[in-house]
Amino acid sequence: MSTCCSSTCSSKAPLRVAVTGAAGQICYSLLFRIANGDMFGKDQPVILQLLERNDEKALAALKGVAMELDDCAFPLLHGIVQTADAETAFKDANVCCLVGSKPRGPGMERADLLKDNGNIFIGQGKVIDAVAADNCLVAVVGNPCNTNCMIGAAQGKRIKADRWTAMVRLDQNRAASQLAQKAGVKVKDVSDIFIYGNHSPTMFPGFHNAKIKGQKATEVITDRAWLETTFCETVGKRGAAIIAARGLSSAASAANACVDHVRSLWTPGAIHSLAVKSNGLYGFHPDVWAGMPVKTTAPGQYEVIKDHPMDEFAKSMIAKTNAELVGELDTVKDMLK
Ligand code: NAD
Ligand code: LMR
Fold first, then answer.
1. Structure pTM?
2. I need a labelling partner for 296 at 20 to 30 A (CA). Which of 107, 108, 235, 271 fits?
3. Quick one: which atom of ligand 2 is closest to the CA of 143?
4. Would you state the pLDDT for residue 335?
5. Is residue 3 part of a domain?
6. Residue 272 catalytic?
7. Residue 337 has what pLDDT?
8. Are 100 and 51 in contact (CB under 8 A)?
9. CA of 43 to the centre of ligand 2 (A)
10. Which of 166, 188, 214 delimits the end of a domain?
11. Nearest ligand atom owner, CA of 242
12. 277 by DSSP, 3-state: which?
């Protein structure tokens, strides 16, 4: 375990960050970024509460990851809990990053994982509701993340649905990169690109509101056909393209997106994409978790931005991704009790 000995340490109380699937691919990047202060800032100590399956190999691998965390001597890392017991992992957690679940392989859609992974979120949703800190914020990464998030939130009585968020930040980052490359500008020149709907090929990366160097992206990239087809499809199918190339699903970029997701939620004024309970906004079914733009109002708190304009193409894309989310809701309705 690292000791607090550097001048970068602060007197802030450590945040308890529970992370599941801690011996998996994504966590092999994610945990080190959290411990380095990339998620909560360089003055915020953390205690990592790491959950793995109750399986000899997985727990041995987790032990190895914890040893490597020790060997980094991160000044902000004030403790590591390694466990296969969900109550221990989620006890008093301020933030839960729910990564642990099966990834898809070649030829599968993320929704094919629903039945297997959905059950994980029933159990973990109940335990989080019972033992996590009152203000606990949950970030679901495990796929299909929107619907897993809905399942987890449905188990709660104490922790409200708006504390449950799912990750579409990887899609936002992918969309920003694609627009920058097409326009021949730097990624930092692209702004106001938000993801609507499901983390699946039906998602809508809202290029109609995006800006490039402050100008409307549609005025900079005038090839509308490229925006409506190549761009939307490239972003929507990027996960499958990575699986085809690597033989494994995205890991470092997913970890980076999880850091961005929570970091933006800890940065008042940040405007970013989150999948949250839609409550009927932007024409989504009120009970589904859909990507949409939010503004962080205080560390860990956000409000949905409700008034982004939608043109006819945007509305048709949202109708498609909403239909898929409603289909997933129907598939798992028995898990929502
Ligand atoms: P991985 O197989 O490398 O790791 C998953 C880990 O979770 C394994 O170590 C496994 O033992 C553990 N695990 C399984 N069930 C668990 C449980 N009940 N409790 C605790 N741990 C459990 O997979 P990965 O590449 O790290 O991906 C994890 C998930 O993230 C997958 O579902 C993947 O599809 C998803 N993902 C989401 C996004 C996104 O943008 N939302 C991006 C990439 C990957
Ligand atoms: C991704 O978008 O890279 C992940 O959701 C993994 C996948 O299955 O596509």
1. 0.96
2. 235
3. 5
4. 94
5. no
6. no
7. 79
8. yes
9. 32
10. 166
11. 2
12. strand
Residues 98 and 174 in one domain: no
**Same-domain pairing of 189 and 273:** yes
For 61, 193, 238, 309, the CA distances from 171, given in Å and listed in that order, are 29, 10, 8, 20
Work out how many domains the chain is built from and give that number. Answer: 2
Ligand 1 centroid – CA 12 distance (Å): 31
Least Cα distance to 80 among 101, 51, 100 occurs for 51
pLDDT for 104 equals 86
Q: Is 309 helix (H, G, I), strand (E, B) or coil?
A: coil
Cβ pair 51, 84 in contact under 8 A: yes
- pLDDT at position 5: 42
| 261 vs 255: CA distance, rounded Å | 10
**Cα four-point dihedral sign 89, 303, 38, 206:** positive
Return d(Cα 49, Cα 32) in angstroms, integer.
13
Any idea which ligand is nearest the CA of 140? 1
Q: How far apart are the first and last CA of the chain?
A: 40
Give average pLDDT by consecutive 10-residue segment, the chain, 337 residues: 46 97 98 98 98 98 98 98 98 98 87 88 98 97 97 96 98 98 98 98 98 98 98 98 96 98 98 98 98 98 97 98 97 92
* CA gap 145, 111 in Å, rounded: 9
